Amino acid sequence: MLALLSAGAHSEESPLRGGTIAYAVTNLRWATYLKPEMRVDCPQGVNDGPREQFKSLYPDDGTVRELADTQLQREVDSWYPTTAPDRFPFREAGGAVAIGMNLDGKVGPNDFTSPEGVPGVDNQLYRALGCINSYRDAHGTNDELNSYEVVKESYNRWLIEITGVENLTNSPHVEVNVYRGLDPLHTDATGKGILPGGTQRIDARWGARFIQHYRGRIVDGVLETEPADLAFPWSVFEVVADEYIHGARFRLKLTPTAAEGLIGGYADIETWYLQLMRSQSTHDQSYGQLSSISLYKALRRLADGYPDPRTGANTAISSALRAQFTQVYILPASKAALPATASLPHYSPYAGPPFPRSASDELQGHEKDPASSSSGNGQVALKP
Amino acid sequence: MDLRWRRSALRLTVIVSALLAPLAMASEAYRPVPMPPEVRVAATELEGPVFTDSKGHTLYQWPLLQMRNGVTGDHLGTSECNEARTDVSAGLMSPYPGGLRLPDLSEHPSCVKMWPPFIAGAAAKPVGKWTVITRKDGSRQWAYDDLPLYTFYLDKHAGDVLGARSDRPTLDAPAVRRPAGPPPDVPPGFAVKTMSTGRLLVTEQGMSVYYSDSDAHGKSSCDATCAETWIPLLAPNLGRARGEFTLIERSPGVNQWAFRGRPLYRYALDGGSHRLKGSDTSGWHNVYTQLAPRPPAEFTVQDTTAGQVLADSSGKTIYSYFCGDDGVDQLECDHPGETDAYRIAVCGGGDAARCLKTFPYVIASAKAVPSGRSWSVMLIDPASGRPALAGQPGALRVWAYRDRPVYTYAGDHSPGDVNGDSHGEFRAERNGYKAFWLRDDFFSRDQPGPG
């Protein structure tokens, strides 16, 4: 049995058929969690979330407060955040270690070292998320919700198909096709355990924007692709929400039944933030003490890629996703029915609402807040 | 009759399968129930038959709802809607505390002002499921199925159901009112579901029901191979024809349901309840008891990453705005005649001028003439967001659905973009914008209301 499932097998039982093997995503998490022995505790503590910030701004001291000046104003600040200085200290993750990839080919002063000791890791998103409880622990709230919904929502059923595979150990030239699938995943009797070997039809209609192609190779059992933009669906709580990664690359350990590893690249900030805001209301964010208002400022402050040609401000942030996939069979008939690549609609990252985002355009209307502190205590200095 | 929407270059065309019903709008049959003499039944465009008072005003219920931080709504046999005006938030909407003064209090109505109780006269007697409750002020109010009944202040004519929401309320929506009506005239095992495209016939488990062009009237041509994908809806041995439902014999002793003479099936690959996927197969169609009115002719239909949305003539997705306040009585705040504070916050960051750019109104052409009552053209004062008077300088002539303006979103750039969807508090359940979904294969957002 083991021989039939070996990485180099081309037997009838092998899922590698005609040089093609496919997988469906089963788990995605932003690469923020480090094992306790590797993690440097946030020296000034974790960040406050919506409840804490609201209480700080508008304490329950008997003052009669207007909903428009408090609750609605916080929602305004969430939906139309700016780069004006944060009224609250924001703690960024420090330490030398982070999961990720060297995206720019350099070893710079802001880079991390991987848990395996490889320098030059670019993952500023970790720096933004690492002191937010939602992303900090193995089962941080937002992290857990996001991951749970990957399997639960059929909207998130994205597939990778690898063609040109000589064997799963070494194949110098492969193509990776990304699709969205239409069918449920194959599970065990509990419904919770995902099993390999299910079939998938390609969603060529609604999922047309997610059809993308990459080039790569397999070396020592690891798929590595060349950088290219990646758009993929990531809905949480039954709303349309997607992610966009500039210059994404896959680094996945392949077996006949699964693929696991990292997807690295520069996450488009406006798309990333829109996914957060649409998926998780202030209520949901408050579970893990995630202040979207403060986080947006941190994302923009730490952004390190893809400058806006008009303003020069970076629009994307280095990041890494930990990804797990299960092997599936893509039905040939659905692939044969795909439209020509040239006719496929193109997925454009979200440009943001027509509201300026600069510090000088901070929206008006805040209730006077004698308790506010903008000292930036604990905040890492702005990057040049 | 099934309605399929097809998109051509920039203009919406409607292809109607005129097989099961005449082209004129069919209305849904209902099962008569005993009613008090002052109660009527009216056909509505979107919700099917509803109960009304003698003047044709739709009757609504406000069922108790468990919300994030507490419960609100009517308990059985008790009305919680009274004369006292709510001034502060109740804190039912996490994570914000209660006790915050609501916006525009001078305009904020009491619950009974917005939802007048359906008062029972002194001589009123219970009949069938209709009972009379005594309100806290001693007056008598009709109840149906033990839930008190109300009218809605904006409903003026028979068939108006302006108090119902046209989106699918979730856990985080306000405690909404729903129209009350007689049960649809369907056999056991069937139900009817309100969709944005019409009243969809489904099984009692919610699975969509289909018919085939290949079937002759009263006869199924779906053989054993076909039946693996299109599963005949079989009637129980004791099943009897009812209303527009008949029985056809597939084989001796095995009867299949038919509606208006067409054998009925469900689709093995639907993958969920209330789906329209089976209609993608040529010759197969969802079954509706009645269709929703046609949107304005100048609108288009666009494919998105989740389904189809209604869009303007240039392909920009159309959005509706929804709002319910967090007072204990959970009043609407999404009509132009009500406070605009919530909408201006989420569309303009508090700036009405920004709102006009972020979520602009959908302008109706000078020659636009709406058909039916669900779609209308209204005059809006862009500076205030309030209804404008005829001839008022600067007034905009805009499209409205259920008497609420519809919008596009400046952050959408290509046909099929829905970047403004779920924009607002609690994913727009509370105060925000949602795309006008005609078909949603993933999240059922084309299914307003509970049924």
Q: Oligomeric state of the chains?
A: heterodimer
Instruction: Compute the separation of the termini of chain B in Å.
Output: 19 Å
- Main beta sheet of chain A, described? 8 strands, antiparallel, barrel
Mean pLDDT of chain B: 90
Which secondary-structure class do the elements of chain A indicate? Answer: alpha+beta
- How many helices of chain A? The count is 9
Structural class of chain B: mainly beta
Quantity of strands of chain A, as a count: 11
Average predicted confidence as pLDDT of chain A? 87
The strands making up the biggest β-sheet of chain A line up spatially as 1-2-3-5-6-8-9-11
Unreliable runs of chain B: 1-25
Key phrases:
heterodimer, A: 384 residues, alpha+beta, 8-stranded antiparallel β-barrel, 9 helices, 11 strands, disordered N terminus, disordered C terminus, B: 451 residues, mainly beta, 7-stranded antiparallel sheet, 3-stranded antiparallel sheet, 4 helices, 5% helix, 29% strand, globular
Summarize the structure.
Chain A is of the alpha+beta class.
Task: Give the arrangement of secondary structure elements.
The complex is a heterodimer of chains A (about 375) and B (about 450).
Chain A: E1 21-30, H1 50-57, H2 71-79, H3 124-129, H4 133-136, H5 141-152, E2 158-163, E3 171-180, E4 198-200, E5 212-219, E6 222-225, E7 228-233, E8 242-254, E9 258-268, H6 269-279, H7 282-287, H8 292-302, E10 305-307, E11 314-330, H9 332-336
Helix pairs in contact in A: 6-8
Chain B: E1 2-7, E2 12-17, E3 40-44, E4 48-52, E5 60-61, E6 65-67, E7 70-72, H1 111-114, E8 130-134, E9 140-144, E10 147-148, E11 178-179, E12 190-195, E13 198-203, E14 210-212, H2 226-229, E15 230-232, E16 245-251, E17 254-259, E18 262-263, E19 265-267, E20 284-286, E21 288-291, E22 300-303, E23 307-311, E24 319-323, H3 341-348, H4 352-358, E25 375-381, E26 386-387, E27 396-401, E28 404-407, E29 423-425, E30 431-435, E31 437-440
Antiparallel strand pairs in B: 1-2, 3-4, 5-11, 6-7, 8-9, 9-10, 12-13, 13-21, 14-20, 15-19, 16-17, 17-18, 22-23, 23-31, 24-28, 24-30, 25-26, 25-27, 27-28, 29-30
